[in-house]
Every structure is written in C-alpha cells, then in structure tokens.
Write a structure and sequence with these properties.
Blueprint (H helix, E strand, L loop, with lengths): L6 H16 L8 H4 L4 H25 L11 H13 L7 H16 L8 H15 L7 H4 L7 H4 L6 H12 L22 E4 L3 H6 L4 H4 L5 E4 L1 H7 L4 H17 L3 H10 L5 H5 L3 H20 L11
Antiparallel strand pairs: 1-2
Length: about 300
C-alpha cells in the first residue's frame, strides 16, 4: 500500500513525531527540521511509533477500500494519517475518532485539499487532527474550507486525479457487487486480474450513438467491475448485456428472481436499472451524477451546490 512513498515521506512522519515531542506539540516537517534528525534518536525513540503509525494507517485505509498502492488517492494524505496514528498512542483510535478521521480523509481527497501541497499545510493538518480527535470542537480546515463543484464530476476521466481515485474507493465502500458474479468488488482487489473502473455504457456503443466523449469517459459512466465481466459487456448496448447477464443467471437456477438479483447488483453501484435497461444515456448520466454527489456529501459532511436550485 505504501510502496509509492518516498524516503522523504517516511522521514517526515518521523520528524512530525520528533518535533511534537521536543517542541511541546508544535509540529514541523520542513527540510531544515529533517536535517536535524538524529539517527540514534530515531532508532531509539521513534522507530516503533512510526512503524505502528504506518501499520494502523494501513488497516484504517483498508477499511476505506484502499488496499493497493495504485489506488491511494494521495500520498500526502497517507503519510498524514500515519503520523496521526503514531502520535495518538498505543491504544489507537476509538469509534468516534475513527469516524472523524474518515471524514477528514474523504474531505481531503474528494475535496482535492492537497492540490498544491506544502510541508507547512501538512504539519498544520496533523496538529488540527490531533486536537479534533482528542475532543476539540474546531474541525480541521480540510473539512471546513473545501469547495467541491458539482460539475467537477464531469471532468474526472482518469486515475491521474486525486478525486477520481477517492471516488473509486468511495463507490467500493458502498458495497458494490460485480454485475455478473455478485461478489463485493472491494473483496476482488487481491485477484490476479483485479477489478478496475470500466464503462457502463461501452465506448463503442456511445460513439455509434453520438454521445459526447467528455460525458461517456467521465467517472459518472464508470464503475468497478472485474475483467471477465467487462469482456462480456464488450461493445454491447446496456439493454443487450443486461439481457445476456439475466439469461445466464436464470439458466443456472436464478429463475424468476434473476432480474431482481441483477437489479440489486446494479443498484449497489448507484445505477438506476430501468434507465440502463432502456439505454437512456442522458437520463442515466444525470441520475447517477446526483447519486454520486450525495455520496460525496455523506462522506465529507459538506453540501455541494447544484446548478439546479431544486437539487
């Protein structure tokens, strides 16, 4: 999970622990402070705390459906979480504290808080989180100051975006099931051929039906599926591949409940089955966009303004 971290990232966690102890809570991870780290002090005083911090962070992030380094939305967030766990002590976090840390994580990633990361901001975030997790009333700036645009979802097309990866993890965390197998997508990360984001309305079908590529390539038209399911979908219209999937379920004992079962799989991805079966791309797109926006609001605790005042 942390295989993408650089040596400097790890040293910054050690520096956060050191400066917190030596300066009575005033945290710094600037380069000048990194150069002052003593190797003997690190080995004797901070190595165990730092190791525990990363181990607890790995478990915490895994519970948020992030288990692979390639799925980590942002390395800065990862080292911040590790530093917080290291500084919170051996007893770890209780349920309320974990919920608060999760809200901060989603706000920082879905809100693209570290778009222009600085060492000063990270140090400040660590201290704000420690204060909040210990019972303080003031929420961290990452929660209070983020500004998420509804139309940002239209722009998310590749893993190069922090928000794209975070929303992928959030969808996994909703318990989405593979269309065909019904397996929770979050449990399929460890497979030799793991899940990935794939088009719901296939690219070729969308091209043939004059759908704007900016829309069909958006994350709104993508969801976690395993490779065999994606190959089965191919270039078929949703109505066609759903009929094929339903037929397979019915022929292997699903009988009259095959449609209902498939509908449950689709709904677990925040997809309206009726709109998908009718091949109504535009209606599907707007419906799922709204559901994804509401998911983001639940995760971050922040209201997202809509163009439509009724939303």
């Amino acid at each position: 999970m942390f295989d993408k971290l650089f040596e400097r990232d790890v040293l910054q966690v050690a520096c956060a622990i050191h400066t917190h102890a030596e300066r009575k809570g005033k945290i710094s991870i600037r380069a000048s402070d990194l150069l002052k780290l003593d190797c003997n002090d690190y080995q004797k005083k901070y190595a165990d705390e730092m190791t525990r911090g990363f181990e607890e962070a790995r478990r915490f992030l895994g519970e948020l459906s992030i288990v692979r380094g390639t799925d980590m939305p942002n390395l800065t967030v990862a080292k911040t979480v590790a530093a917080v766990y290291a500084l919170m002590g051996k007893n770890g976090l209780n349920a309320v504290q974990r919920d608060r840390l999760a809200q901060w994580f989603w706000a920082a990633t879905l809100g693209e808080w570290y778009g222009a990361s600085t060492d000063t901001r990270v140090a400040s975030d660590i201290q704000e989180l420690l204060d909040w997790l210990k019972g303080g009333d003031k929420k961290p700036q990452a929660i209070g100051n983020i500004n998420i645009r509804a139309d940002r979802l239209d722009e998310l097309k590749t893993r190069g975006s922090v928000m794209y990866k975070a929303l992928y993890a959030a969808i996994l965390g909703e318990g989405c099931q593979d269309f065909r197998t019904g397996e929770p997508a979050s449990a399929m990360h460890t497979y030799d051929d793991p899940v990935d984001m794939h088009h719901i309305f296939p690219k070729k079908w969308a091209d043939n039906n004059n759908i704007d590529s900016n829309r069909y390539n958006s994350i709104i038209n993508k969801t976690p599926l395993d490779a065999p399911t994606n190959r089965m979908i191919g270039a078929r219209a949703p109505s066609e591949y759903l009929e094929k999937l339903e037929g397979e379920l019915a022929s292997t004992g699903g009988g009259g409940v095959a449609k209902e079962q498939l509908d449950r799989h689709l709904e677990s991805h925040l997809i309206n089955p009726d709109l998908l079966r009718a091949d109504k791309f535009d209606a599907f797109y707007e419906d799922r966009k709204e559901k994804l926006l509401k998911l983001i609001e639940r995760k971050t605790g922040r209201k997202i303004p809509r163009d439509d005042p009724k939303a």
